[in-house]
Write a structure and sequence with these properties.
With 377 residues, the chain is α/β, with parallel strands linked by helices. The chain is built from twelve helices and 13 strands. Helix 2 crosses helix 10, helix 5 packs parallel to helix 6 and helix 7 runs parallel beside helix 8. This is Isopropylmalate dehydrogenase-like domain-containing protein.
Length: 377
């Protein structure tokens, strides 16, 4: 059953109107100059319901951090919380219904059994809601030392087919057949999403990742679709790279990449590699989006979701999910709240005083969260 954050909703509804600008806050009067980020439509400030899935293991720690920060910045969102575990046979219908109703979900990691057992609930969510595009933003953070600088890569991955189609069967004992399905429809729409993203975000280049030298029909169809879409965006540079060479180039010269568009499996590998190069999976935000719904979560692998030591010590890194929640706020057209949150996170990373173990520190989740709250404007 969902748990609504009712006190937060009541507070948002009853909050006093913003104080009008005084002469001290206007340009030329000694105050800070504010710019207009966008002109809201009437009603844009109404509180929005967001489905929240804390998930397994450390998920409760990092989603708890997000809830604390959202309350401090008075973000116009409230959460409908559902308990979902990775070992459940299916995603409960009430959760799917909530996401369909709210259009937006924030989730912690869900553990997926390896080998036998239940199927991945993450995949069930993506297919049920047709979340066909996965986006992971991998970039350097000032103050966080990495081997490579000037890394700013966006990996856009097709999320519903390919090797993740789930079409497997045993032909005869000892022989298993797993089908990789690539369709023109899904390849075209992920290519369109990648180029549209590049166009709207002033990105200069889109790179298609493939293995068409071996899988000539399947990956060949993916490339054909990318080329057709690329021809409609002459202002954006387009190139192609074989996936194995791509991995080598990522660890050697990652700064050469901008937006990368990939089939399903390659995108998983490329996004995790890029995240590791740019600072680690604990600081990389991401989300999954379809025509009508969006689910925001840690961008790269949540492989530490079941790490009992991190959970017991309460030292999970909340940064990735906090930045993913900033992406969510922009998606909901609350850009100023997203800016405040991102700025505070980057200040804490740059200062370097409060960091979890994966970033070379020894801070707890709560200590990092408190530092971020203290740095909010």
């Amino acid at each position: 059953m969902a748990r609504r954050s009712a006190p937060l909703l009541r507070r948002l509804v009853s909050s006093p109107a913003p104080v009008p600008a005084t002469s001290a806050s206007l340009p030329g009067h000694g105050g800070a100059r504010r710019t207009v980020t966008y002109m809201p439509r009437p009603g844009d400030g109404n509180p929005r319901a967001v489905t929240l899935i804390p998930g397994d293991g450390i998920g409760t720690l990092v989603t708890g951090a997000v809830q604390q920060v959202m309350e401090v910045i008075h973000a116009p969102v409230y959460f409908e919380t559902y308990e979902v575990r990775g070992d459940m046979p299916t995603v409960p219908p009430a959760v799917i219904e909530s996401i369909r109703r709210n259009k937006v979900c924030l989730k912690g990691g869900l553990a997926t059994p390896v080998g036998g057992g239940v199927s991945s609930l993450n995949m069930q969510l993506r297919k049920e809601l047709d979340l066909y595009a996965s986006l992971v933003n991998c970039s350097n953070f000032p103050g966080l030392p990495t081997r490579h600088q000037d890394v700013d890569i966006v990996v856009i991955r097709e999320n519903t087919e390919g090797e993740y189609s789930g079409l497997e069967h045993e032909v005869v004992p000892g022989v298993v057949e797993s089908l990789k399905v690539i369709t023109k429809f899904c390849s075209e729409r992920i290519a369109k999403y990648a180029f549209e993203y590049a166009y709207l975000n002033n990105r200069k280049k889109v790179t298609a990742v493939h293995k068409a030298n071996i899988m000539k029909l399947a990956d060949g169809l993916f490339l054909e679709s990318c080329r057709e879409v690329a021809s409609k965006y002459p202002g954006i540079q387009y190139n192609e790279i074989i996936v194995d060479n791509c991995c080598m180039q990522l660890v050697a010269k990652p700064e050469q990449f901008d937006v990368m568009v990939t089939p399903n499996l390659y995108g998983n590998l490329v996004a995790n590699t890029a995240a590791g190069i740019a600072g680690g999976t604990g600081v990389m935000p991401g989300g999954n989006v379809g025509q009508d719904h969006a689910v925001f979560e840690q961008g790269a692998s949540a492989g530490n979701v079941g790490n009992e030591n991190i959970l017991e010590q309460k030292k999970a890194n909340p940064v990735a999910l906090l930045l993913s929640s900033a992406m969510m706020l922009r998606h909901l057209q609350f850009p100023s709240f997203a800016d405040r949150l991102e700025t505070a996170v980057k200040r804490v990373i740059a200062e370097g005083k409060y960091r979890t173990k994966d970033l070379g520190g020894n801070s707890t989740t709560q200590e990092v969260t408190d530092a971020i709250i203290a740095n909010l404007d």
